[in-house]
């Protein structure tokens, strides 16, 4: 069906004035992908021979982004905004394109490859000169309107700013997605004039030109208008983000993922989640995150580009580029940063921060600790409020902890340092030297009690009265 598809042109040079942003419009993100990234993703379903993206506003940033997400596309530079028709002229200039060309905007993130295929099917089956994807929009304000003749055929497209009251009443709008006979488009595109309210060359005007030259035009009406929503400002950005969220969540729920509250669960288009995962409210699963079956995530948890293995449980936590082993437990209030690897059945408990550290199978960091730049073996326990002192003010250093180690609460492990298999550290120790396997490392002041100090120095206070009463009781007991 798309065998005939030679070229796709994505128009992405506009200023995006209405976004009021230093970031080029097509680089704004929804569901973890740039607007233009979504469009290119839909286009990739067609396997076109070549994709050209017209860039202009924020050219460097857009080109850099494209090199990252779509290295096979070529770019065409539109130096000054001359309208969608002008952008198309530049995309066609100096090349000899035949077959079918698909043209679409870079700001319609909801479009699916499926709808693009349908447009091409209509176009090819009817042998049309041009085919326009259209939709009935409940609020058509701002869109070009589809003006049909008495026989229902497409006469022309009229932009909102150039529309009279009669045309403004039309609910069928132009999606900005078109299939053309490339040679005929190339012949007609030079005939555009900027005789309109914006003084631009409108690609939409080429429809009437082709029609007047005897070309046949199809208007392919799409069922779900949501697909063609364009993003021109931050309100539409948020709307399309919410719609994409709903679409993504529905897809996962149909695939067997329990999403307790889909309205507060945000999953990027790039995340993978297996069936029988449960997601509690207020949770975001972002980037290239991959969640294995049986995992329970949330409430109020953010995972960005994390790998979560079978049956892991993550509560009220923030994790970035972390690996969380099978049946591991995280949270509440854990902060797992880049390079954290929790083994099978490992634990990062309440108020624990971990960075660039491997916590071996069954090892636990249950409470109030910082673990940075470390390797912890299997079955070890890191006592509450332990700090891995990894930074000397200039360099970061590594801590190595063996298997079945017991780090006493409130230990400072001053890196570089290593604790051998089966070793202990005494609570409250500042460990600056290696502790051999099986040893107990003690590094703290010895306790001494100054008897009677409170009665002498704080007489009359509640503490002193209580202490005196206790002394009397002890005397009576003899
Ligand atoms: C355009 C259509 C409108 C349609 C709507 C669908 C025209 C004249 N109008 O309007 O009929 O209903 O899309 O969303 O085509 N661009 C360039 N160079 C330019 C101008 C624009 O590359 O000189 C790019 C923009 O980056 C954008 C796309 O073309 O991705 C559409 O431009 P935009 O200004 O958003 O057009 P709309 O007003 O939305
Ligand atoms: Ca637009």
Please explain how this structure is put together:
By secondary structure, this protein is an alpha/beta fold. The strands form seven sheets. Strands 13, 14, 16, 17, 19, 20, 22, 23, 25, 26, 28, 30, 33 and 36 form a 14-stranded parallel beta sheet that branches. It has a seven-stranded mixed beta sheet with strand order 5-4-1-6-10-7-11, sandwiched between helices. It is 22% helix and 29% strand. It is built from ten helices and 39 strands. The chain is elongated and about 115 Å long. 44% of the residues are buried. The mean pLDDT is 96. Bound molecules: uridine-diphosphate-N-acetylglucosamine and calcium ion. Calcium ion (CA) binds next to loops.
Which spans have pLDDT < 50 for at least 5 consecutive residues? none
Please outline the major beta sheet. 14 strands, parallel
Gap between N and C termini, in Å?
Answer: 102 Å
Structural class: alpha/beta
> Total number of helical segments?
10
Nearest-angstrom radius of gyration? 32 Å
Q: What is the overall silhouette?
A: elongated
- Range of helix content: 10-25%
**Could you tell me which ligands this complex binds, including any ions or cofactors?**
uridine-diphosphate-N-acetylglucosamine, calcium ion
Number of strands: 39
- Mean pLDDT across all amino acids: 96
Strand residue content: 25-35%
Q: Could you give the topology of this structure?
A:
Blueprint: E1 5-12, E2 29-30, E3 33-34, H1 35-44, E4 50-55, H2 59-69, E5 74-77, H3 84-92, E6 100-105, H4 113-126, E7 130-136, E8 145-148, E9 154-158, H5 165-168, E10 172-181, H6 182-188, H7 205-212, E11 217-222, H8 234-254, E12 258-259, E13 266-267, E14 272-273, E15 278-279, E16 284-286, E17 290-291, E18 296-297, E19 302-304, E20 307-308, E21 313-314, E22 318-320, E23 323-324, E24 329-330, E25 334-336, E26 341-342, E27 347-350, E28 352-359, E29 364-367, E30 370-376, E31 381-382, E32 387-389, E33 399-401, E34 406-407, E35 412-414, E36 417-419, E37 424-425, E38 430-431, E39 440-441, H9 453-457, H10 462-477
Parallel strand pairs: 1-4, 1-6, 4-5, 7-11, 12-15, 13-16, 14-17, 15-18, 16-19, 17-20, 18-21, 19-22, 20-23, 21-24, 22-25, 23-26, 24-27, 25-28, 26-28, 27-29, 28-30, 30-33, 31-34, 32-35, 33-36, 34-37, 35-38, 37-39
Antiparallel strand pairs: 2-3, 6-10, 7-10, 8-9
Subunit structure: Homotrimer.
Catalytic activity: N-acetyl-alpha-D-glucosamine 1-phosphate + UTP + H(+) = UDP-N-acetyl-alpha-D-glucosamine + diphosphate; alpha-D-glucosamine 1-phosphate + acetyl-CoA = N-acetyl-alpha-D-glucosamine 1-phosphate + CoA + H(+)
InterPro entries: Bifunctional_GlmU, GlmU-like, GlmU_C_LbH, Hexapep, MobA-like_NTP_Trfase, Nucleotide-diphossugar_trans, Trimer_LpxA-like_sf
